[in-house]
Amino acid sequence: xxxxxxxxxxxxxxxxxxxxxxxxxxxxxxxxxxxxxxxxxxxxxxxxxxxxxxxxxxxx
Length: 60
Hints:
By secondary structure, this protein is mainly α. Helices cover 93% and strands 0% of the residues. The chain is built from 2 helices and no strands. The protein has helices at residues 2-10, 13-59.
C-alpha cells in the first residue's frame, strides 16, 4: 500500500493534462477579452461597409 501511494504521488501524467487545460482556458479568456474590446470598432466598420453598399446599390 505504501508503494502504491509513493508511485501515485510521483505520477505527473494527470498534472500535465490539467496544465494544458489551464493554458487553454487562459488563452480563451484572452481571446474573449480582445474581442470584447474590439467589438465597438468592428460594429462601426461593418456599419460603414453596410452604408457604402446600400449607397452603391441605390445609385445604380
